[in-house]
Design brief:
Layout lengths: L5 E2 L2 H7 L3 E4 L14 H13 L9 E4 L23 H5 L1 H16 L13 H12 L5 H4 L4 H21 L7 H11 L1 H14 L4 H11 L29
Parallel strand pairs: 1-2, 2-3
Helix pairs in contact: 4-5, 4-7, 4-9, 5-7, 5-9, 8-9, 9-10
Length: 244
């Protein structure tokens, strides 16, 4: 059966090599653009369905040409927790992240936090990522898991916890605003940037692939120190994928 879909993250969809997908330049959580814009949303849907008529595969990844319409909401969002750079961050990024978690904890406790995917506590996750970013031995943290998978789960858990905590604060913010806050104003964002730079130098191609496409979003690559192009493996066609 022919299939089609809509993607919000170009690099991940490209790596998966799916038969037909439409990439849209909208914020996460809004695959059809702005709310209350039915005409625009129908255009997006038609563009995705039109891919079913394409026969120039096996892989078709089409870019939607337009940005989402502007909304009437003009809300300036500012996180009430200030994470200005401090002297501790230069010498001890782990301590800086721990301090941030302490400041965010009161917000996070206002509603149940999402379950962690990793078996480690928040503090253990911070220490693990700090050790990996510093090039230290992390075998004691990964157990039987592949190192890349353990790092992915740790980074996802901490990022999810941060975004959960900041979403509890008063006022409105778009997903893009929260993501900009996370990647550009927090010590954890900077630590993940340091980790990405470290992993890009790995001899393992899958580790470099994760660092290049799965750790720091493209819009925030500026936080990765001395980012360089990595020699990446080609992504295999997923098993069972049909060209029909």
């Amino acid at each position: 059966m022919p299939t089609t879909g809509i993607s919000l993250i170009h690099e991940q969809t490209e790596a998966m090599r799916l038969p037909r997908f439409l990439w849209v330049p909208f914020e996460l959580g809004r695959p059809f653009g702005a709310p209350n814009e039915p005409s625009f949303q129908r255009r997006v849907l038609r563009a995705a369905l039109d891919l079913l008529d394409r026969s120039d595969g096996p892989v078709v990844l089409e870019d939607f040409p337009d940005d989402a319409p502007a909304t009437d909401e003009e809300v300036v969002w500012t996180c009430p927790v200030s994470f200005g750079p401090g002297p501790v961050e230069e010498s001890d990024p782990v301590a800086a992240v721990r301090a941030e978690i302490g400041q965010l904890a009161a917000w996070a406790e206002l509603s149940p936090a999402p379950a962690l995917n990793s078996s480690m506590s928040l503090d253990e996750l911070v220490v693990f990522l700090g050790a990996a970013a510093a090039g230290e031995d992390t075998a004691g943290y990964t157990g039987d898991q592949p190192a890349v998978e353990a790092l992915r789960l740790a980074a996802d858990d901490l990022r999810t916890w941060y975004l959960h905590a900041v979403a509890r604060q008063p006022g409105a913010a778009t997903t893009a605003e929260r993501m900009t806050w996370f990647w550009e104003q927090t010590a954890l964002g900077r630590l993940l940037g340091e980790l990405a730079a470290r992993l890009l130098a790995s001899p393992d191609p899958l580790t470099r692939l994760f660092a290049d496409r799965g750790l720091v979003p493209r819009d925030h690559w500026a936080i990765v120190p001395e980012r360089r192009s990595a020699e990446l493996p080609e992504s295999p066609t997923p098993t069972g994928t049909s060209d029909d």
